[in-house]
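Long-time lurker. I teach an intro course on protein structure, and each term I like to show students one example going from raw sequence to a predicted 3D structure in token notation. This year I'd like something fresh instead of my usual example. Would anyone be willing to generate the tokens for the chain below so I can use it in lecture? Attribution to the forum is fine with me.
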Amino acid sequence: MALLQNMISIIGENWLLLLVGQYPNGPLGGIAATMILSVLGIALAFPLSVLMALARISPWPALRWPVTAIVYLVRGVPLLLIILWVYFLLPLLIGQSIPGFVTMLVTLVIYEGAFLSEVVRAGITALPKGQMDAARALGHSHLGAMRYVILPQALFNMIPSIISQFVSTIKETTLGYIINVPELTFAAGQINNRLLTKPFEVYFILAGAYFVVCWTLTGVANLLERRIAARRAGILNGGAEAAGLAAASAGVSRV
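-- Reply from a regular --
Happy to contribute to a lecture. Here you go:
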């Protein structure tokens, strides 16, 4: 009971810091910064991931091989190492210091772009091969078939996976703590440094906040996945019924 009272007291005294950090007297932080960083990371990584996926399945080796190498490299390296690479390399390339928020955002775009590219590639390759053949037979080029026929179907089917990757991105933003990005974990660290005697309560609150956000989004992803599966089943059943009616009418015409 004392533990619960301590947690309620900590939340009551520090809820604003957990929610928006030191804003408006300082940079925006807390849950707000975590969600903004995650949304921007996924939003900017998604177009990059589509281009990378198209390059990986393209018939041109000059595109396919370099992008495949990049994807394997990024997916095979810890996110922490990529953060450090961007943190030290990006200022050297542009000649000026970069805020921690921008550093973390660039890192997430690179990292999530590589992971999402595999999601996009899987969604495209999961479609029947006849889709591409039919589009090419109608006169579309390879890129035209991808744009007008393949991608609209694949992207719709990938929505649950994209939301799941968004959940992973929220958890990955915690590593921004090491470069002083004022996200939720950083705010919890500030509270812990001020209290000193209640680290378990502070970080239990932090874990609970991440759990609630991620559990909610995972539930949304599962709901969307069930709806997409039901729509697929309806389309398949409709196609089977249409085929049955066509066969029956063909049989009648023969008689």
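Some talking points for your students: Residues 246 and 252 are 10 Å apart (CA to CA). The two ends are 82 Å apart (CA to CA).
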